[in-house]
Amino acid sequence: MILSQYGDYLYLYILLLVSIPAVILGIREKNIKYYAMFITVVMVILTIGVDSQFRYLLGFIFWEMILIYTFYRLRTKNKLIFRIYIILSLLPLIINKLMPFLKLDLVGFVGISYMSFKTVQIIIDIFDGNVKELDFFDIIYFILFFPTLSSGPIDRYRRFKDDINSSISSDDYIENYLSIGIKKLFKGIVYKFAFASILYVFMDKIPNDKSALSLIMYMYLYTFYLFFDFAGYSSMAIGTGYIFGVHVPENFNKPFISKDMKEFWTRWHISLSRWFGDYIFSRYVLAAMRNRKIKKKKNIYRIGQIITMTTMGIWHGLTWYYIAYGVYQGIALVLTDNYIGTKWHKKNAKNKIYQYLQVFITFHIICFGMLIFSGYLNRFFG
């Protein structure tokens, strides 16, 4: 039997049972790390099973560890070798995304996208000199860490390693880990099993036609459904991580009060947007400035935003609506940059009514993007 992570009550019941020893260890000021490593293996097996998915996962781990350790041994600053390693690290994910087109049944298991980002991140940090030493079991634990296996958030290896190897006093654990973790876990349960479930019922009742009213209804309902579903998953993952002694980074922070799209991406899927910002956007901008082929910094930023968000769309899947969603978000960021630089915006930026209008307009830009992302428009073009 394969369980859906945070997706059913049986999983939550098992999660409660395996969390009890972690709580006891934390209160008694014992390191939770080794127990958590064991439970991670158990929960991974319960989530993906022991059939082909598990074999693919073992092959993925073996492949990535070879790449990480050989690149660490090289510690080269040769950019060509570095890029080859990045491509090789992403190869399982690339094959996974191409499987529907190649009609293959390879490299498929729950969480491959998030795991790939973790392994690529380590290679990049080795290249940048930010990772000075490797611990085999810490890396395996980081890649497989069960609370964030299938839904994120995406953590950073150095921060994660510091957390799992730090000493936590009983009072600190109770106040800054256990109590916060329980609150976040229950918040996620309410978001996922109450709000998202109710919204899904209403979505299911939308008439199956091509009317503008159905389109608008679906757009609003799907936007809120996706938020409560995904924010619910994330909150449960973060809460579980806290209970197991890890300060998993936040993933959502009231995204629908954003005044513009730049602010939105500091509030929505925060860990992913920061990952893309640090490892794609910033690196592209720095490389472009050094090459000096594009003279204006504004143009470099604009191209970087388009590249970053399009890549994010492709990461979600090789379907037209995911790619269109990425391009849409890139264009939205470029237009936002242009607009906030205008005299009109600067003149009215502190006006409350103007700010409310910004939130209203931004919300609808968000909603239309979610409509694209949902694939619902297929019925209009099909």
Describe the protein's architecture and organization.
Among the domains are: 32-164, no CATH class; 255-381, no CATH class. The longest helix is centred in the middle third of the chain and has 35 residues, at 170-204. The chain is an all-alpha fold and 382 residues long. The two termini are 37 Å apart. The protein is built from 16 helices and no strands. The model has no long low-confidence stretch (mean pLDDT 93). It has helices spanning 9-27, 33-48, 52-74, 79-102, 112-128, 136-144, 157-164, 170-204, 212-243, 261-264, 270-291, 297-316, 320-340, 343-348, 352-374, 378-381. Pathway: Cell wall biogenesis; lipoteichoic acid biosynthesis. It is a multi-pass membrane protein. It is found in: Cell membrane.
Q: In sequence order, what are the helices and strands, one letter per element? A: HHHHHHHHHHHHHHHH
- Give the count of helical stretches: 16
How much beta, percentage-wise?
under 5%
* Quaternary class: single chain
The whole-number mean of residue pLDDT values reads: 93
Distance between the termini: 37 Å
Which ranges are low-confidence, i.e. pLDDT below 50, for 5 or more consecutive residues?
Answer: none
Extended strand count = 0
Top keywords for this entry?
382 residues, mainly alpha, 16 helices, globular
Give the SSE layout.
Layout: H1 9-27, H2 33-48, H3 52-74, H4 79-102, H5 112-128, H6 136-144, H7 157-164, H8 170-204, H9 212-243, H10 261-264, H11 270-291, H12 297-316, H13 320-340, H14 343-348, H15 352-374, H16 378-381
Helix pairs in contact: 3-4, 3-5, 4-5, 8-9, 9-15, 11-12, 12-13, 13-15
